Amino acid sequence: MASTAFKTYAHEHGGRVSLLFLLFLLAIYQFIEAGYNAFAIICMLPALALVVLGAFHYRMLTFWALFAINYLIQWHSFPLSGIPTSLPNEMLEIILLALAIIDVQEAKFERCGNVMLLALLAWASFCTLEVLNNTSDLGIQAGAWYSGARMMAFQLLYAFLVYTLYITNPKLLIKYLYVWGLFALFATFWVWKQQQFGLTSAENSFLQGRGRTTHLLQAGTLIRYFSIYGDAANFGIGIASTAVAFLIFGITQKIKRYRYFFLTIGLACTWAMFPSGTRTATFCLIAGIIVYIFLSKSIKIAIPVTILFGVAFFLLAFTTIGNGNQSIRRMRTAFDKNDASSNQRTINQAVMKKYLADAPFGLGIGMGYENVPANNKYRKLATIPPDSEYVFIWIHTGVFGITIFLILTAVMFVGACWIVLFRLESSSLRGLGAGFCCAFVSIQLGGYGNQVLMQFPNCLIFYGGLTLVYVLPWIEKDWIDYENEQLAVQNEKKRLKLEKKKASRV
Q: pTM for the whole thing?
């Protein structure tokens, strides 16, 4: 029926239909190949309308699409990598939140009321007030401020609300962990593929261009691989933090198939951090495991984990075992106090400190080398590479901003740890909560060493993961029932297998 109507309309209006159809195809091509512009956006509005209509009927599919695009958007070979990185994420998050508000009776808004929401609202409020920051004497730059505030504050709030409202029961939680694990496994496969079979043309363009000075080392003999992430530091720290989470998930689960899957992902991610050549990743992995020793509340787990990672740390820091591998040799330089890269960061931060003494609220969110003129007092501050997410926040929000951020981050983390230690009765659910908490510590340490904390895909994954810790008390009763059902099935399969084995011996 619809096909007949379209044919009739096309026959009556002739070339106009064909022209509009060709323009729409051209817009899609522009959108993929050249990035977005006003013309492409206007022509893509019908597609956006279809996405919104589809989201009404397939809400969880929209959530999975958000996760997938968030994970792949910085991949140099991904078709959407030419558009502004935050655009697809922000659109899908806003759609998901709008759908939750429309269906307010079904949404779990009561679960949002916790200390993490208050901390994120406080941070977003401070960043909103930063629009009035005129340290550079350039007046209020609302456009630049909004671009920066979206990444520095608003995306954290979006992640919290979306995860709270859409991961509402044990089955969705397990499905989420499987989806995350499979994407992480794909990232580890891709870094192996880069090592063994080389880079794609898009990846090689990045390596030979913007990434040449940081990813081609030792006269070009050592490549810092970056998998499907934007750069090697982002990949190394993100995958190390993922390893922390899945190793802890694996050793704390009672259901065997979950345990084996999680441990496989954790071990694969542990291997994958080495090709990145990101030295901070080593400390991220160690820090996450150390925090777990305190959260485990189990001597049986704490002692073997401490011994295992103590031995690994000793081998890496105090021996030359494995020095035949370039990636391991580079990781060992993380323990070198005289490392040139580390010393250069210290020098840069000393320069920043002098400028920021006169700017307690920072340079201003969104203010950078592209909008601070050459004759401005703070031009130097706007052009020095921050090399750290914390330093980046310090530059743009000053000592007040970084202090507030650190305090609120500590509040969110301590609140989550309190839940794991004192509010959860299920040991396996505590294991999931501990995994999320330890991964959060890991990525925060990565943010201290590199500018990766607010990057894709890390921000949504790890702030979303901490959000789920606050959701766990709400679903614990259902989790216990779900786990008991799965354990009953597991035990029945085991019983049947033993009976079959005994029967075969007769």
A: 0.85
